[in-house]
Specification:
Rossmann fold, ABC_transporter_ATP-binding, six-stranded mixed sheet, Alpha-Beta Plaits, transport, nucleotide-binding, four-stranded antiparallel sheet, 34% helix, binds adenosine-5'-triphosphate, ATP binding, AAA+_ATPase
Length: 309
């Protein structure tokens, strides 16, 4: 599939001397959802701002749909929709005018059918004549998305779409993103909520201290780096694990009612079979066993900590 965004050797040194981006390379395929995951201050907003032409890069190249963001700024920018972190909307303007003006700003001709389609897809059609100030926080966020889609961009940036919103609103934003994906919009979202990346992204890029630590297909990442946990419920609680088990990295949890065993899915042997035999030999009777894949959160924390040590 063709790439819609190409970033090569991107550097940003702010006037303060702070290096916010350090040799970033990234290629985004048309139609995918990429989550740019990183802790506070990692450089996510700086990266988006450069692609959108709001911040000047110190070095490197960025092209959107084949257009260089500096030499062919207008053509590149026309392909991008940006949903900023902060809600900045004119309170007395109607929803309809917000999207109509935004389309006009990009020099696009009037297309009421497209705007209706965008508003309907974001469940805002009934609110088209309402003023922005009358809307709930969740609706205002959706208006920001509608505004960003008004000029028919091919790529949409969502900068921390759910920062500071409650769990319910976060879920409804995820549904909106899912709907946009179904319409073929390429989406790059920044987040420091791992749960968010895990839920909606096709690929995950991890950024820390201005460097991309990895970019990988979500499922493959979880598979490659994933550890599994085996939780063994005991029939009777025990006070301590026999010494030979401590060496295997077993942990006694839930006040002696369960044992936790972490194993690597990539190894030639998991060690589960011998563990179960050994437990039986010690007279430990099992009640139930369950396995769990480690979450992206554990993978992420592992990566960022590895980088810092
Ligand atoms: N205008 C600026 N001048 C100097 N330093 C800046 C400027 N803007 C950002 N920075 C610094 O660059 C680094 C990256 O900031 P950026 O906002 O890109 O990070 P982020 O990953 O988006 O963080 P957050 O998740 O907190 O939004 C930070 O250390 C920040 O303090």
């Amino acid at each position: 599939m063709a790439s819609i965004l190409e970033i090569k050797g991107l550097e940003k040194r702010y006037a303060s001397g702070h290096v916010a981006l350090h040799g970033v390379d990234l290629s985004i395929e048309e139609g995918e959802i990429l989550a740019l995951l990183g802790p506070n201050g990692a450089g996510k907003t700086t990266l988006i701002s450069i692609v959108c032409g709001l911040v000047m890069p110190s070095a490197g190249q960025v092209s959107v749909g084949g257009f260089d963001i500096r030499r062919e700024y207008r053509r590149a920018r026309a392909l991008i929709g940006l949903v900023p972190q902060e809600i900045a909307l004119e309170p007395f303007e109607t929803v309809w005018n917000v999207v109509r003006f935004s389309r006009g700003l990009f020099g696009k001709g009037r297309d009421d059918a497209h705007l209706e389609d965008v508003l309907r897809s974001l469940s805002l059609w009934d609110k088209r004549d309402a003023q922005v100030r009358e809307l709930s926080g969740g609706m205002k966020r959706r208006v920001l998305i509608a505004k960003a889609l008004a000029h028919e961009p091919r790529i949409l940036f969502l900068d921390e779409p759910t920062a500071g919103v409650d769990v319910e609103l976060r879920r409804s934003m995820w549904e909106v993103v899912e709907g946009l994906r179904a319409r073929g919009v390429t989406i790059i979202l920044t987040t420091h909520y791992i749960e968010e990346a895990e839920e909606i992204a096709d690929r995950i890029a991890v950024i820390a201290k201005g460097e991309i630590l990895l970019v990988e297909d979500k499922a493959r990442l979880m598979d490659r780096m994933g550890q599994k946990e085996l939780r063994i419920e005991l029939h009777e609680p025990i006070t301590a694990l026999p010494a030979r088990f401590a060496e295997k990295g077993l942990e006694l949890i839930d006040e002696g009612r369960a044992i936790l065993f972490r194993y690597d899915t990539r190894g030639p042997r998991t060690g589960i079979a011998s563990l179960l035999t050994d437990l039986a030999a010690e007279g430990i009777v099992l009640r139930d066993i369950a396995t769990r894949q480690s979450s992206l959160e554990e993978i992420f924390v592992g990566l960022v900590t590895e980088e810092q040590t």
